[in-house]
Write a structure and sequence with these properties.
Number of strands: 2
Number of helices: 4
Oligomer: single chain
Number of domains: 2
Strand content: 5-15%
Order of helices and strands: EHEHHH
Shape: elongated
């Protein structure tokens, strides 16, 4: 399925219903990651997930949506990683300060 070294280890993997598959869930459990994936509506036996952790996913999605308002960040005009990270820091500061 996935290469073991392709994804760094983590405690949780938070994903939407599109990633609800038995193969992905078993692979995550084998590597010690807890899947936080709500079950699809057509699943015969629904699998529970941690609702508190899944709600925090929305915060991350909104952050990326706000960054996309900054055209320079969304299209990555800056060539060096140092200036790109500085642009992200400024965008984050302005977005949450105002």
């Amino acid at each position: 399925m996935l290469a073991i070294d392709a994804v760094p280890p983590s405690d949780y993997l938070v994903a939407d219903k599109g990633y609800d598959s038995n193969a992905l869930r078993s692979w995550l459990i084998e590597r010690g990651t807890t899947p936080v994936i709500p079950s699809k509506s057509n699943r015969k036996v629904p699998i529970d997930h941690d609702c508190q952790i899944y709600r925090q996913r929305n915060v991350v999605e909104r952050m990326f949506c706000r960054f996309k308002d900054w055209r320079r960040v969304a299209t990555r005009f800056d060539r060096s990683i140092k200036t790109f990270m500085a642009t992200i820091a400024i965008a984050a500061f302005v977005t949450w300060w105002l």
